[in-house]
Design brief:
4-stranded mixed beta sheet; 7-stranded mixed beta sheet; about 40% helix; binds pyridoxal-5'-phosphate; alpha/beta
Length: about 425
């Protein structure tokens, strides 16, 4: 549709890779058209294989807090690679990484590294089940926790976008242990707990939802969730795979002042390399093998390249706490620009934003949960997406995703984005 080489590559890719991509949303299926193949990234920008440059707001779906390839990250990786790509034996860097995370996020007393967000959430639920001896757990409609079977029930992100929130291949047995509550609705949680008295191991939640678009929690809701879990001896898991080190150095839990029992990380923690982690209370984490009986393992977990990337990013965060103010300033500038545009066009679409995570929904009713999120006019989003792309702005090719601002976005980038936003809306409305 746009560009020759991308199109050729996509046709070739479809012969060998299901749908031509290694993760569904990349395929542009919900917005139409063909995906763009990327050649390289630098700072706030990406260059595709046909020579077009874009201002990137996907940020590899979250990891690039500092834009593409910041110097400190590149030099850390170059140094690490001199010492081999992997050992399968402990390294000093793993100790430094674990210690640094416990410093940045006070609820983390112990942590284990894995290779993706999916592995982190899957392991956290296993640990919660092993620790409590119970099998059921509560998740919220529209929240995404990776693609383990028992999470793919009314899941967000690509599953929601592609209309398969509940995937074939998930057994009835698996589905039966997953209880669904409504985001921002404490009564829906209470009802489930009453109906399943003493059977619930865990509640898992995105403490700021980013996979049904951005949905901001009510602080009171999170606080009540914490209280109920403590009273009922249910493990509270904050899935901060997206929000960890994104919304503040201590994640959403720092912003809302709530201490979960376990937390999962991914995305920024690997700075673009495949990394995840889960951690929390020491008495729970010590149940994991080899200190305890709950099995969890990984051939490449704590991989030295991944650790050097993650450690350099988290060290940068520790040494430059001012970045979160910069991100807030940049993001609010962008938000205000978007709001001004809408005013000029007599529209009042919902803009949900917290720090450098934001999302515009094509609905004028508040978006506070799954049911209100899916009221967004996704066909309008598709048109908007393509208009923005034409103007060199690369957004997520799906409505139910976040837009990420990085420290690399310049005021010139943002002015260009605001202008493109106005022109795009004007064209499609
Ligand atoms: C991205 C994401 C995951 C899954 O992480 P992967 O690395 O894609 O497996 C889990 N939970 C949340 C909240 C996420 O945003």
């Amino acid at each position: 549709m746009y560009i020759k080489k991308s199109e050729e590559l996509f046709n070739e890719a479809k012969k060998y890779i299901p749908g031509g991509v290694n993760s569904p949303v990349r395929a542009f299926k919900s917005v139409g058209g063909n995906p763009i193949f990327i050649a390289k990234g630098y700072g706030s920008k990406m260059l595709d294989v046909d020579g077009n440059e874009y201002i990137d707001y996907i940020s590899s779906w979250g990891p690039h807090l500092f834009g593409h390839n910041p110097d400190f990250l590149k030099s850390a990786l170059l140094e690490a690679i001199e010492a081999s790509t992997s050992f399968g034996a402990p390294t000093e860097l793993e100790v430094k990484m674990a210690k640094l995370i416990t410093e940045l996020v006070p609820s983390i007393e112990m942590i284990r590294m894995v290779n993706s967000g999916t592995e982190a959430t899957m392991s956290a639920v296993r640990v919660a089940r092993g620790y409590t001896g119970k099998e059921k757990f509560i998740k919220f409609e529209g929240c995404y926790h990776g693609h383990a079977d028992y999470f793919l029930i009314k899941a967000g992100s690509g599953a929601l976008t592609l209309g398969v929130p509940t995937s074939p291949g998930v057994t009835k047995g698996n589905a039966a242990d997953t209880l669904l509550a409504d985001y921002n609705n404490i009564n829906s949680v209470k009802e489930l707990i009453i109906k399943n008295k003493n059977e619930i191991a865990a509640v898992i939640i995105e403490p700021i939802a980013g996979n049904m678009g951005v949905v901001i929690p009510d602080k009171e809701f999170l606080q009540q969730l914490r209280n109920i879990c403590s009273e009922e001896k249910i493990i509270l898991i904050f899935d901060e795979v997206m929000t960890g080190f994104r919304v503040s150095k201590g994640g959403a839990q720092e912003i809302f002042g709530i201490k979960p029992d376990l937390t999962t990380f991914g995305k920024i923690i690997g700075a673009g390399l495949p990394v995840g982690a889960f951690g929390g209370r020491k008495d729970i984490m010590e149940m994991i093998a080899p200190s305890g009986p709950i099995y969890q393992a990984g051939t490449l977990s704590g991989n030295p390249l991944a650790m050097s990337a993650g450690y350099s990013a988290l060290s940068y965060i520790k040494n430059h706490p001012e970045i979160y103010n910069q991100l807030e300033e940049k993001s609010s500038y962008l938000e205000n620009g978007f709001r001004e545009n809408m005013k000029k066009l007599n529209k009042n679409f919902v803009m949900n934003r917290i720090g450098s995570m934001m999302c515009m929904f094509f609905t004028e009713q508040p978006v506070v949960d799954y049911k209100s999120a899916v009221k967004s006019d996704t066909s309008l989003y598709s048109k908007y997406f393509h208009e923005m792309l034409k103007r060199g702005i690369y957004l997520a090719p799906a409505q139910f995703e976040a837009m990420f601002v990085s420290t690399a976005h310049s005021s010139e980038d943002m002015d260009k984005t605001i202008k493109a936003h106005y022109e795009s809306l004007k064209t499609i409305l």
